[in-house]
């Protein structure tokens, strides 16, 4: 694990975007990105968009796979991850919408949709660089504490803490879906590079557990200690509990 501590959120985004752009440059125009939603990677996507605007990054032939999707939220819902990824990734990074995918959280057969998603990632040649955030309880993707290290894309029940944290995106706390389809920890670990971003004091405990704690299913992010190419980019507030 390489740990980079930055003075503020904007520099977290700049450093993480530079790392992603480097992987894309090495992988070639058809690079495969893995993309997280939530607040953490927004600065990274903004900096990637600047590189695209400046002409130093071209993602028109690249592909992207979202980490996760709520179950039961139609694609047209503004908080479905399909919609969030379109707004924050596909459009600003000028990607081809046909090359950007999210798991199908409205599929009649969710187990089959999960299998299909794994196959689609495999058929694309695997993920070159996976952008991640981390939950306050240590989750990555929506692999909540207790998730199997070998897990693949599947349906998960969101932890109460995760639903409470995500209530800010919905009119009422009760509107937050209870289930999601998420790439598994095994799926995430297959990415050739991982770039995890975290900002703010509310992430400090999770960051310390991920980086310095034991590798344990109680903190799914700690599994990244076993990834050969994981870069953790945090601001000073999220780094306060690091030794
Ligand atoms: C989002 C995801 C989650 C978030 C995490 C942090 O696709 O998979 O793991 O990265 O919940 O969310 P924020 O960044 O909103 O604090």
Automatic annotation (TrEMBL):
<comment type="function">
    <text>Catalyzes the reversible isomerization-deamination of glucosamine 6-phosphate (GlcN6P) to form fructose 6-phosphate (Fru6P) and ammonium ion.</text>
</comment>
<dbReference type="InterPro" id="IPR037171">
    <property type="entry name" value="NagB/RpiA_transferase-like"/>
</dbReference>
<feature type="active site" description="For ring-opening step">
    <location>
        <position position="137"/>
    </location>
</feature>
<dbReference type="GO" id="GO:0006046">
    <property type="term" value="P:N-acetylglucosamine catabolic process"/>
</dbReference>
<feature type="active site" description="Proton acceptor; for ring-opening step">
    <location>
        <position position="139"/>
    </location>
</feature>
<feature type="active site" description="For ring-opening step">
    <location>
        <position position="144"/>
    </location>
</feature>
<dbReference type="GO" id="GO:0004342">
    <property type="term" value="F:glucosamine-6-phosphate deaminase activity"/>
</dbReference>
<dbReference type="GO" id="GO:0006043">
    <property type="term" value="P:glucosamine catabolic process"/>
</dbReference>
<keyword id="KW-0378">Hydrolase</keyword>
<comment type="pathway">
    <text>Amino-sugar metabolism; N-acetylneuraminate degradation; D-fructose 6-phosphate from N-acetylneuraminate: step 5/5.</text>
</comment>
<dbReference type="InterPro" id="IPR004547">
    <property type="entry name" value="Glucosamine6P_isomerase"/>
</dbReference>
<comment type="similarity">
    <text>Belongs to the glucosamine/galactosamine-6-phosphate isomerase family. NagB subfamily.</text>
</comment>
<dbReference type="GO" id="GO:0005737">
    <property type="term" value="C:cytoplasm"/>
</dbReference>
<feature type="active site" description="Proton acceptor; for enolization step">
    <location>
        <position position="68"/>
    </location>
</feature>
<feature type="domain" description="Glucosamine/galactosamine-6-phosphate isomerase">
    <location>
        <begin position="13"/>
        <end position="228"/>
    </location>
</feature>
<dbReference type="Pfam" id="PF01182">
    <property type="entry name" value="Glucosamine_iso"/>
</dbReference>
<dbReference type="GO" id="GO:0042802">
    <property type="term" value="F:identical protein binding"/>
</dbReference>
<protein>
    <recommendedName>
        <fullName>Glucosamine-6-phosphate deaminase</fullName>
        <ecNumber>3.5.99.6</ecNumber>
    </recommendedName>
</protein>
<dbReference type="GO" id="GO:0019262">
    <property type="term" value="P:N-acetylneuraminate catabolic process"/>
</dbReference>
<dbReference type="GO" id="GO:0005975">
    <property type="term" value="P:carbohydrate metabolic process"/>
</dbReference>
<keyword id="KW-0119">Carbohydrate metabolism</keyword>
<dbReference type="InterPro" id="IPR006148">
    <property type="entry name" value="Glc/Gal-6P_isomerase"/>
</dbReference>
<keyword id="KW-0021">Allosteric enzyme</keyword>
<feature type="site" description="Part of the allosteric site">
    <location>
        <position position="147"/>
    </location>
</feature>
<feature type="site" description="Part of the allosteric site">
    <location>
        <position position="154"/>
    </location>
</feature>
<feature type="site" description="Part of the allosteric site">
    <location>
        <position position="156"/>
    </location>
</feature>
<feature type="site" description="Part of the allosteric site">
    <location>
        <position position="157"/>
    </location>
</feature>
<dbReference type="InterPro" id="IPR018321">
    <property type="entry name" value="Glucosamine6P_isomerase_CS"/>
</dbReference>
């Amino acid at each position: 694990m390489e740990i980079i501590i930055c003075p503020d959120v904007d520099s977290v985004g700049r450093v993480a975007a530079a790392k992603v752009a480097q992987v894309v440059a090495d992988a070639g125009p058809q690079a495969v990105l893995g993309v997280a939603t939530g607040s953490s990677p927004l600065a990274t996507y903004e900096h990637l968009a600047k590189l695209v605007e400046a002409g130093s990054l071209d993602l028109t032939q690249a592909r992207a796979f979202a980490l996760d999707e709520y179950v039961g939220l139609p694609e047209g819902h503004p908080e479905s991850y399909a919609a969030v990824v379109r707004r924050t990734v596909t459009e600003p990074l000028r990607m081809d919408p046909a090359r950007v995918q999210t798991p199908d959280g409205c599929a009649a057969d969710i187990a089959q949709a999960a299998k299909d998603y794994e196959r689609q990632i495999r058929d694309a040649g695997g993920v070159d660089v996976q952008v991640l955030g981390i939950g306050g309880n240590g989750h990555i993707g929506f692999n909540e504490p207790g998730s199997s290290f070998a897990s693949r894309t599947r349906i998960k029940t969101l932890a109460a803490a995760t639903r409470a944290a995500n209530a800010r995106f919905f009119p009422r706390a009760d509107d937050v879906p209870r289930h999601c389809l998420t790439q598994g920890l095994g799926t995430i670990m297959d990415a050739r590079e991982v770039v995890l971003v975290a900002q703010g004091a509310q992430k400090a405990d999770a960051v310390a557990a991920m980086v310095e704690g034991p590798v344990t299913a109680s903190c799914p992010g700690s599994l990244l200690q076993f990834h050969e190419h994981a870069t953790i980019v945090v601001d000073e507030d999220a780094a306060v509990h690091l030794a």
